[in-house]
Amino acid sequence: MTSVLEAIPGFFFAKDQEGKYIALNSNLADFYQHSIAAVIGKTDFDFFPTEIAAAMVENDREVMARGVLQRFEEAVPVSEEEIGTYLSTKAPLRNAAGDVVGMIGLAQDISDRKAIEATLRQSEKRFRDVTEAAGEYVWEISLDGVYTFVTEQSKAVKGYGPDELLGHSPYEFMAPEDVPHVRDVIQKAAADKSAFTLEHRDITPTGEVVWAAVSGVPILNEQGDVIGFRGTGLSITDRKLAEVAVAESEAKFRRLVENANDLLYEIDANGEFQYLSPQLTKVWGYAVEDLLNQPFALLVHPDDIPQLMESTQKLFATGKRQTDLEFRIRHQDGHWIWVTCNNSPIKDADKRAIGFQGIARDISDRKAFEEAQSRLTAILDTTSDLVGISNMQGEQLYLNSAGHRLIFLPPDLDIAG
Known about the structure:
17 strands, 14 helices, five-stranded antiparallel β-sheet, alpha+beta
């Protein structure tokens, strides 16, 4: 039993009714930076700030009071500055008489997943808030680069009105780093008698840096000589800020995806991978390029293919999202791992599903926990003592084989309820 608990990737723990640890695995002991023996007999208040420990204890008490398995997302300090999030699965611990004498639990770090969700929400809000400015100002400059005409819209684009610009050079309001390039473009356009387009930054009276997209055409005299330029200017500040925001958001999302435990993927109508996040190598052992354009079904355990094919066909037929799909995947080294997947359809212009994208999470630890429970039941069935489990309402949920014999019940009689 100990070896099974030690094999669980997350934290395993058991506490008595007073909240004192009576069992735990090495992962949790290492997290607390103590030996298992040193943690036994202590409570969450010995390891966490009062507010966080109180919340955990409240969850423990609720499980013991209700007598049913529950799941909680719990805040856990992972450093002096950082608070992580753990998904804790807790269940009541009962004695042979069926009385609740404590609780047992399993906790898994889901901080990466929560961070990804938060980042996506922030990105969506940023994209909604970014808008392009509409409206252009009209301008004219002389050949020596002095404004001779400017419309009122210049105030909205550059931060200066016509009375502030007329008689001055555009370079006076421009970011110094941009002046050489803008001057070269205009001088070339004058020499070639051609139109030009460019982007540059201005510094407003308040010191704010704004961007403008400027288009100009030469003004010619009767002899065909260039005597100036006229054109329009459009604010592109929001677009530039959006480009930076998107780049930052994409970089942040990419970093999170690359460091997350979950795998993101995209599969086409032929069942072939079209995208796999870099975490593939970490979680499944394969190189991304080895699986691109390869059938997903090749990785699935043969016993799980029928139910997976059925759910995939249903997604394409209904166009509806599929959640909590559990099946086995062959790791690159040959062993099988359990995963749970959520899939969302990718639709064409006619709203027909042409593929799907999803997220896969390794649940091998949960399956190991369930297997450990099954092994415990098997062990109880081999003992000569009567062992029974009932709920808070007194309904019998389990009776081992010895119990059936001792009270003269048929071995195959289902006593649940």
